[in-house]
Amino acid sequence: MTKKRYHGIDLHASKLVMHTIEGEGASVKRISRTMSTIALESDFFPTLSPEDVLCVEASTCTAWFAQEAEKAGARVVVINPFDFKALYCTGKKTDSVDAKKLAEYIYNRDRLTSGCMEEVYVLYENPRQAIF
User: Fold this and answer.
1) I need a labelling partner for 125 at 20 to 30 A (CA). Which of 15, 25, 28, 64 fits?
2) pTM, rounded to two decimals
3) CATH topology of domain 5-131
4) DSSP readout, the chain?
């Protein structure tokens, strides 16, 4: 049986910072890493499965990222960055801190089956059309 993995993703145009929480209870394992967006297609998306839950803030790269992750079988939760910052960004703010807080949010939300932030609808069919 594979373990669920919860990924908090701080996504940028050229890189992403990820914090992963894997396992349950006392056996929780935490991993943090930074990866270029170019490496996603070869080094990240192929490792995803239905046991993966990703949490990412809505941004310019989110539609592509979410679509590719879902094609690989993962569940993607896109949240409003203003809601996230209002609730979770206190103290020092860095990409790794954001990724960790996103991972903790989705880990706790999935286990408690409730969340205090609404998911954001992501348009996959040519996202640029929605802007212009």
Assistant:
1) 15
2) 0.78
3) Nucleotidyltransferase; domain 5 (3.30.420)
4) -PPPEEEEEEE-SSEEEEEEEESSGGG-EEEEEEEEGGGIIIIIGGG--TTEEEEEE--TTHHHHHHHHHHTT-EEEEE-HHHHHHHH--S---HHHHHHHHHHHHHHHHHHT--SSPBPP---S-HHHHH-
